[in-house]
Design goal:
33 helices, about 20% strand, actin binding, elongated, four-stranded antiparallel β-sheet, Methylamine Dehydrogenase, Chain H, 29 strands, alpha+beta, membrane, Lipocalin, endosome, transport
């Protein structure tokens, strides 16, 4: 354990810091880092170098080279810079490289050097040029802050949703500030800048002077400032050699350290971790690295070559031409286990496990000591936690073996934490591999989440590793393997050296019917790459027509889209395509297309019936569909025309169409309707009242109700209304009028073709039993019983039923008999039944 802690450096009494190597860099740099613009992404992200930036001593004809490397120095992309001079580089949270040019344009590149997009920081920046820029991160996304040649600041808190804010002017600012940075407070981005001994805080509304509490006197200038990874703390380096550390709000001082060096540092970054015992700042000069905090002494390292600092969530990455290292505070669990002469439970358990492997009885002594103190559970948890913070797999295994050994002596220790740590470390060791080059720590991995890590592997096109991790962690297919395969397919369609047929086949063989994979999304990517035929082939594998059709329409393959929509049976989808076709094709081609698709034609006719009647008429004319054309003119005569002449003309056109369709019945009915319309208009003129648009029956009824019986009879003769129907109409109308005298005359005018039971029923319906009885006696024998029952004469109904000897009539009368009132009648029926049965 002594050797293990050899690289531990104490900072005060409460914390140790250690620096270990992540990678030996083999990136073969031809220039020093100081001669390049450098940007490194957090969370073990990539490194971008813009070699040979614009300098006077360089030949103007030499173009700069933008190189992108993994954190292990593996080349990812290299391209000649053909745009304008670059002032600053930075990585977004999505690992997109933002290149801020002198003219205010920001060019965005992917991890592999592919150009994504560009945007401008505004006309003012263009006119005054960019002096300096910062890329910063907020909870909304990645932001860009610009210092212009007019010494004004412009920023956007989220480049994904660009909203430029021009910050207030600093009074009396005639030259560039000695140092400045972007702060994020209360979900709002601010600018903090130093001008001589003064600090100014710019927000969206005002410029205010701020003073750090407890700052040592004698400061005439601030040379450097640094904001912590979480934007909660701020460090200021003064020209007196003091480093002030406090909260980012400048309301509270944490500590102040005198480093006795007045030269401005190259870089200054925070080095702390969540729940840190000692917040520290790392300051770098040409050949010296210093770690300072709330302690009288500092930790110092000698830098053998030009280095660059990358602040992380729980430490600082330091890379140079030859090495890539990580400096961080030793986590509490590791410190408890490994510090010299430690008697912590985890330390004793680790020793016990080592002695057990040596088959020494000391293992039992250590174990008993832990158990006597009741700290075995704590010891196991310490070893598991410490394993997560170790970088070397051998030490991870040693600690996990100790934890596993301790678990054997616990009855109810939940295995979840141990299993989860084993899984997490296996994933971390896989991505830390030199060829992958993502040196995540356990704390960074937990903050980043597995989904984001998978996204970053996909960005690096490390699809096999991403799939292996998903399968190992047993992630749901939609979140894991399916999503990665979809990304792989979208990358595959960009390989233009492979034929469309081969790409489509390869994608289908790999994806098959994998749940969560949308072939339409892959086809859309293919279309975006200019491979329309490949997109169509891929859409053949898409089972959802609702996904196929919109993309086919976008690709201007409307007829194919129509066929797919019809196959789906989704009428809404068919209507969508039809309306698109209507706008895309001329009228003739559109109708010809519909003729080849009967279902689409039928649906379009339904649409036209409600929306475009003239188009519907054109369709019927083109198809010589005289039957439907006649129906169309009939509907039009009622819907469109108000004048009787226009309606008759429309009906005449309909009748002609029906004759052409050889539908004589419809033609005759239409002609009858024309006659009726003319007659109704004449009746309105002569009699007044409302007759127009009534049916023939209603017209007759209206005439009877108006007392125009002869006119009604004449109308019935003209239109050959059968006697039965006329009697029914007259009976109903007179009953509604309650003209019982006229009704009686009507009943005696001649023998009723409908019988007299309807007279009884209609009188009862009008609640006039007296009149009903007049007609009950005239009802024929077969309906006599029913008529008598309607008027309430049960006894006479019984006599008639007994006389007829009809069992059905007897049962009907019996059902109308009530208790005491009709008891004698009921007995009479029962006796009649009994006699009938004897015979």
């Amino acid at each position: 354990m002594d050797c293990y802690t050899a690289n531990w450096n104490p900072l005060g009494d409460s914390a140790f810091y250690r620096k270990y190597e992540l990678y030996s860099m083999d990136w073969d740099l031809k220039e020093e880092l100081r001669d390049c613009l450098v940007a490194a992404a957090p969370y073990g992200g990539p490194i971008a170098l813009l070699r040979n930036p614009w300098r006077k001593e360089k030949a103007a004809s030499v173009r700069p080279v933008l190189d992108i490397y993994s954190a292990s120095g593996m080349p990812l992309a290299s391209l000649l810079w053909k745009s304008g001079p670059v002032v600053s580089l930075g990585w977004s949270a999505e690992e997109e490289l933002l290149c801020v040019q002198e003219d205010g344009a920001v060019l965005v590149y992917g991890l592999h050097g592919d150009f994504r997009r560009h945007f401008s920081m505004g006309n003012e920046v263009l006119q005054n040029r960019v002096l300096d820029a910062r890329i910063f991160h907020t909870e909304f996304g990645s932001g860009v802050a610009i210092l212009t040649g007019a010494h004004r600041f412009t920023l956007s808190a989220n480049v994904g949703d660009l909203k430029l804010r021009r910050m207030p002017e600093v009074p009396g600012l005639q030259s560039a500030p000695s140092c400045w940075t972007a702060l994020c407070q209360d979900r709002v981005a601010h600018i903090l800048l130093a001008v001589g001994p003064d600090l100014y805080l710019l927000d969206h509304a005002a410029c205010s002077t701020v003073t750090p509490p407890g700052l040592a006197p004698g400061v005439s200038s601030f040379l450097q400032m640094a904001v912590s990874f979480t934007y909660r703390h701020l460090a200021l380096f003064t020209d007196t050699g003091y480093i002030w550390m406090g909260t980012a709000s400048l309301k509270e001082k944490l500590c102040e350290f005198n480093c006795n060096i007045r030269a401005a540092p190259k870089q200054m970054v925070w080095c702390s971790r969540p729940r840190s015992k000692e917040r520290a700042v790392v300051v770098a000069w040409e050949r010296r690295l210093m770690v300072v905090g709330d302690a009288p002494e500092s930790i110092q390292f000698v830098l053998d070559e030009d280095s660059y600092l990358v602040p992380e969530l729980d430490g600082v990455r330091i890379f140079s031409r030859s090495t890539h290292e990580f400096l961080h505070e030793v986590p509490a669990a590791s410190e408890e286990i490994f510090k010299i002469a430690s008697m912590a439970p985890g330390a004793l358990l680790l020793e016990a496990q080592k002695e057990y492997e040596k088959e020494s009885q000391k293992a039992d002594e250590y174990l008993r000591e832990i158990q006597e103190l009741g700290q075995l559970t704590q010891a196991v948890q310490q070893c598991i936690e410490a394993a997560g913070h170790e970088h070397q797999p051998d030490m991870q295994k040693s600690l996990l073996r100790a934890a596993s050994f301790g678990k054997c002596f616990l009855d109810r220790f939940p295995p979840d934490s141990f299993v989860r740590m084993c899984q997490d470390l296996r994933v971390l060791n896989a991505v830390r591999d030199y060829h992958i080059g993502i040196p995540l720590t356990y704390s960074q991995y937990k903050q980043l989440t597995i989904q984001v890590l998978l996204d970053r592997l996909v960005l690096r096109r490390l699809y096999p590793l991403a799939i292996q991790i998903c399968e190992y962690l047993r992630l749901p297919e939609v979140q894991g393997v399916s999503r990665i395969l979809a990304h792989w397919a979208c990358y595959k369609v960009q390989q233009k050296d492979v034929s469309d047929e081969d790409v489509a086949r390869a994608i289908n063989q790999k994806l098959g019917d994998t749940p969560g994979v949308s072939y339409s999304d892959i086809a859309a990517r293919a279309y975006g790459c200019g491979r329309t035929e490949l997109a169509i082939k891929l859409l053949e594998y898409e089972p959802r027509s609702g996904e196929q059709v919109p993309l086919l329409l976008k690709m201007k393959r409307s007829k194919l889209a129509l066929s797919k929509a019809i196959e789906s049976g989704d009428t809404d989808l068919v209507f969508t395509v039809l309306l698109h076709l209507k706008n895309e094709l001329n009228r003739g081609d559109f109708f010809m297309t519909l003729r080849n698709q009967p279902m689409a034609l039928s649906l379009y006719r339904q649409f036209c019936k409600h929306q475009e009647l003239e188009t519907l008429k054109d369709l019927y004319n083109q198809d010589d569909n005289h039957q439907e054309l006649g129906s169309f003119h009939i509907r039009a005569s009622y819907a469109a025309e108000e004048r009787i002449e226009g309606r008759v003309a429309a009906l005449q056109t309909a009748a002609d169409a029906f004759y052409k369709a050889k539908n004589e019945f419809a033609a005759k009915a239409t002609e009858d309707q024309m006659r009726l319309l003319r007659l109704q208009r004449r009746l309105e003129d002569e009699l007044g009242g409302q007759f127009l648009d009534l049916s023939l029956h209603d017209t007759v009824t209206t005439l009877i109700l108006g007392g125009h019986n002869k006119r009604a009879e004449q109308l019935a003769r003209d239109f050959r209304i059968p006697d039965k129907r006329l009697w029914w109409l007259k009976l109903t109308a007179l009953a509604d009028l309650e003209d019982w005298e006229e009704l009686e005359k009507f009943s005696k005018s001649k023998k009723s073709p409908i019988g007299y039971l309807p007279f009884v029923e209609i009188c009862i319906k009008q609640h006039n039993k007296y009149e009903a009885k007049k007609y009950a006696s005239r009802v024929g024998p077969e309906q006599k019983v029913k008529a008598l029952l309607l008027v309430g004469d049960v006894a006479q109904a019984a006599d008639v039923a007994i006389e007829h000897r009809n069992e059905a009539e007897l049962s009907l009368v019996l059902s109308h008999c009530t208790g005491a009132t009709d008891g004698a009648t009921a007995d009479k029926i029962q006796r009649a039944r009994a006699q009938a049965q004897k015979k």
